[in-house]
Design brief:
The chain has 424 residues and is an alpha+beta fold. It has 20 helices and nine strands. It has two domains: 230 residues, Hypothetical protein af1432, CATH 1.10.3210.10; 144 residues, no CATH class. The longest helix is centred in the first third of the chain and has 21 residues. The radius of gyration is 23 Å and the shape is globular.
């Protein structure tokens, strides 16, 4: 990154052009935990479908930092930051830079597999001697603890909403960058309008919070639709989800067999983890992923064809899901791990827990008009899929019925050794 004695440095970025990195952030950039993000792809296995999707968490984090500087600059111009301490403003910039420091290799797959969240792991990485020393050199009081609270969404800062919330800068950045790198038109967000619409408002009981001026309503809608389209067409693309399901099962099996340790994975990178998996010997899933021999869909059901609560256990209980997968594989004369069930859920991905500042100066909840739309879009993006290593015919109605069972009912069926599916 260059000589840290400079007051700032300029980093060239294909999305935002010039990113100014201030002195307080230069040491953070050069720390070992942050440099690790260079070797973690932003979109996991999406590069198997979209070849350009090889961009890293490092680039994304720099972009989030850039947007934080822009948003804070605009708030300062309007006088909205009056009364907020300078060290708190600096912390928000650093929190934007470090919001993904705890991320696992291959995006969110391992959190889906049941490992602790990357927000939880951020605390461990912030305690790394290299990064801790860089933060302490800023002169800010208790920087690691305060940044961890901003990342986790538990800070009492009025600026919390810029780091974790319905309109945080992370979302604006990744949607814009991911669409550009995948070469798709779906992630169009009116970034300038959104940034100019962000404001701080006083809330009952004292304090302030991030809100959006009513004139930014259309830009906020563009953010919702961009997120829906990116989930439906990129993040939850059937081949991306097949690769993700295969990877999750591969790592879970390795951990269960004592051949991988979760703490080591949390400090690893994409290639280091895949290389370790390949050294385990005869691991068919690892070989198939490397050669892009992905499992194919035997069933592909839109969530709109299912009751709203159907299949909640698939995303919420990875252990139960793995047990069901192996029982289904046995019924279909497949080996354990050759049938995978996938029904991704991000219940809060389209939440709009925001306040609008109306043209009359009053405050209104944005979710009154937008939340029903957000919930419908989330439901429309989801699909229940069964992936198999070898072709199998499944009775779709039986799959639908199976998904309607809740977790306790599924466990009872397994205990009674009931047949789960009928071969078509």
């Amino acid at each position: 990154m260059g000589d840290n004695s400079a007051d700032f440095e300029i980093v060239r970025d294909p999305l935002w052009s010039n990113i100014r990195v201030d002195a307080e952030a230069l040491g953070v950039l050069d720390s070992e935990p942050f440099q690790r993000l260079r070797y973690i792809r932003q979109l996991g296995h999406a590069f198997l479908v979209y070849p350009g999707a090889t961009h890293s968490r490092f680039e994304h984090a720099l972009g989030a930092y850039h947007l934080a500087r822009r948003a804070l600059g605009l708030l300062a111009e309007r006088g909205d930051l009056h009364g907020i301490p300078a060290d708190e403003i600096s912390l928000v910039r650093l929190a934007a830079l470090l919001h993904d420091v705890g991320h696992y290799p291959f995006s969110h797959a391992l959190e889906e597999a049941g490992l602790p969240s990357h927000e939880t792991l951020a605390v461990e990485h912030l305690a790394h001697p290299d990064l801790r020393a860089a933060l302490e050199r800023t002169g800010i009081t208790a920087p690691a603890q305060r940044i961890a609270a901003l990342i986790a969404g538990t800070s009492t800062s009025a600026l919390q909403g810029l780091i974790s919330g319905s309109l945080d800068l992370d979302k604006i950045e990744y949607l814009t960058r991911d669409a550009r790198m995948c070469g798709v038109p779906y992630g169009a967000v009116d970034v300038d309008r959104l940034l100019h619409s962000i404001t701080l408002v006083a809330v009952p009981g004292g304090g302030a919070r991030v809100a959006v001026h009513e004139k930014g309503a259309s830009a906020l809608e563009s953010l919702l639709f961009a997120k829906y389209q990116m989930y439906r067409n990129v993040y939850w693309h059937h081949a991306v989800r097949s690769a993700t399901a295969m990877f999750k099962r591969l790592v879970r099996d390795a951990i269960a067999a004592g051949r991988l340790e979760a703490p080591w994975i949390a400090r690893s990178t994409d290639e280091a983890l895949m290389e370790r998996l390949h050294t385990l010997g005869d691991v068919p899933l690892a070989q198939r992923l490397r050669r892009r021999r992905l499992y194919k869909r035997a069933v592909d059901l839109p969530a709109t064809d299912l009751p709203a609560s159907a299949g909640a256990w698939i995303a919420d209980d990875p252990d139960l899901t793995a047990t069901v997968e192996d029982r289904l594989a046995l019924e279909l004369k497949l080996r354990p791990g050759e049938l995978l069930v996938d029904f991704p859920a991000k219940a809060h991905m389209l939440n709009v827990d925001l306040l609008f500042v109306t043209r009359r100066g009053t405050l209104e909840p944005a979710q009154v008009g937008l939340q029903p739309v957000a919930e419908a879009l989330h439901r429309a993006a989801r699909r229940l899929r069964i992936f198999v290593a070898e072709p199998r015919a499944l009775e779709v109605e039986r799959v639908r019925t199976l998904a309607e069972h809740d977790g306790p009912a599924m466990r009872k069926m397994l205990e009674r050794r009931e047949t789960l599916l009928q071969v078509g």
